[in-house]
Amino acid sequence: MVFGPPPWRLVATCTRGLEEVLAGELRELGAGDVAPGAGSVSFAGDLAAVHEANVRLRTGMRVLVTLVRGRTPGRKGLYALASRVPWEDLIPPGSTFAVETVGKAPGLEHSGFAALVVKDAVADRIRGRRGARPDVDRRNPDLRVHVHLGRHGTSISLDSTGEPLSRRGYRHHGGAAPLAETLAAGLLLLAGYDGGAPFADPLCGSGTLVAEAALIASRTAPGLRRSFAFERWPFHDPAVLDDVRHRAALDRREPPRPIRGADRSRRAVATAGENLRRAGMHRWVELAVADVREMAPLEPGTLVVTNPPYGERLGETTGLEGFYRELGDALKRRAAGCTAWLLVGNRELAGAIGLRASRRIRLFNGPIECRFLRFDLYEGSRRHGEGGDTGVGE
Ligand SMILES: C[S@@+](CC[C@H](N)C(=O)[O-])C[C@H]1O[C@@H](n2cnc3c(N)ncnc32)[C@H](O)[C@@H]1O
């Protein structure tokens, strides 16, 4: 095997703030040497582990198989490092490849330049052995080479995933400000959701949180139906993938507790319905057109996870403080005995909720730094003053 005998050094990437959740998922899959980093988690495993991670991870974005690591002073160092990989075994005659670079290293500040250096090393090595250079196909390559440049060294990996794992394939019509599927799943796992409690998102938009909740509650692996970059590797064995998918499918169950989504926008609810249908989750989720300020009281013990409009993201700034205050009131009155988690991208708005947060987690929704706030809604939760004590500045 071109990667050497397993276990190999594998890396799953993720949104910043979800490293511990991803590490927990990997440990549950039985991965060894799980070590969270910044925006990624490294682990040890074999080819089946690569398949399993791609099919089952909820918060991972891509799974990389490390080919070589080292210090790469400038162009020469990077070229020498890339030349050590037996590319001729990875790119058979007639196959194409592409190089993607992230990060920076001294002398390699431009990712386009670093990609060019690695591309030359790959092509020169293959030409030296075969007499012909392989073709580059940036859009649809057979082999995706991933280069991570950092101050402490460079790693060159194969991207086993291709289209990021956030693209589950069920969301064709995004709403006004949809969450990435991996972030939505991460929020639910951070909130401790496992399907065992009733779930509600009263501001469900295009339905990402309810879809991910239904996937978790029904123990459906998010990658059961999609394809992966590793299927085009020269040594790909479809039987390994079939086996991983088959075993993942056996875990499925009917969600034990209700999952509900609502939005005041009729259009958003229609989009959520279409997305749930595509995800195969529509049977498990009840949707309604409703204003959160008038929602029916929730069953005590319900877990609410939601992301209210931010202002910045939807281009609305005025009137939102009032809305957040009313949202806090609605939760207090209509969700007594429940736990609510809100993803909030704006400190002033978070203060307007007027409830004390019992936990605050720093997360990124794309480029927006957010706080994921937990509110324990005991009977008669007390309001705090204007700009209340949510502690989002901490
Ligand atoms: C940031 S978006 C939620 C996005 C959603 N998580 C997704 O992934 O598509 C906020 C949603 O709140 C809804 N909304 C705003 N005010 C509302 C209200 N008073 N009652 C119910 N829904 C409301 C908007 O229609 C919008 O769909």
Structure report:
This protein has 394 residues and is of the alpha/beta class. It has 2 domains: 8-159, VC0802-like; 181-218 and 255-377, Vaccinia Virus protein VP39 (Rossmann fold, 3-Layer(aba) Sandwich), CATH 3.40.50.150. It is built from 11 helices and 15 strands. It has helices at 19-28, 47-56, 74-83, 87-90, 111-130, 181-190, 208-217, 238-250, 266-279, 320-334, 347-352, and strands spanning 8-13, 32-36, 40-45, 62-70, 96-103, 135-136, 143-150, 153-159, 199-201, 259-263, 285-289, 303-306, 338-344, 359-365, 368-377. The strands form 2 sheets. An 8-stranded mixed beta sheet has the order 2-3-1-4-8-7-5-6. Helix 2 crosses helix 8 (238-250) and helix 6 packs across helix 7 (208-217). It is elongated and about 75 Å long. The protein starts with 7 loop residues before the first strand and ends in a 17-residue tail after the last strand. The model is unreliable at 381-389 (pLDDT under 50). It binds S-adenosylmethionine.
Return residue spans where pLDDT drops below 50 for at least 5 consecutive residues: 381-389
- In total, the number of strands is 15
In CATH, the architecture of the largest domain is 3-Layer(aba) Sandwich
Number of helices: 11
Number of domains: 2
Short characterization:
The protein has 394 residues and is of the alpha/beta class.
Write the SSE topology.
Layout: E1 8-13, H1 19-28, E2 32-36, E3 40-45, H2 47-56, E4 62-70, H3 74-83, H4 87-90, E5 96-103, H5 111-130, E6 135-136, E7 143-150, E8 153-159, H6 181-190, E9 199-201, H7 208-217, H8 238-250, E10 259-263, H9 266-279, E11 285-289, E12 303-306, H10 320-334, E13 338-344, H11 347-352, E14 359-365, E15 368-377
Parallel strand pairs: 5-6, 5-7, 9-10, 9-12, 10-11, 12-13
Antiparallel strand pairs: 1-3, 1-4, 2-3, 4-8, 7-8, 13-15, 14-15
Helix pairs in contact: 2-8, 3-5, 6-7, 7-9
Bound molecules: S-adenosylmethionine.
S-adenosylmethionine binds at residues 175-179, 203, 205-206, 208-209, 263-265, 268, 291-293, 307-309.
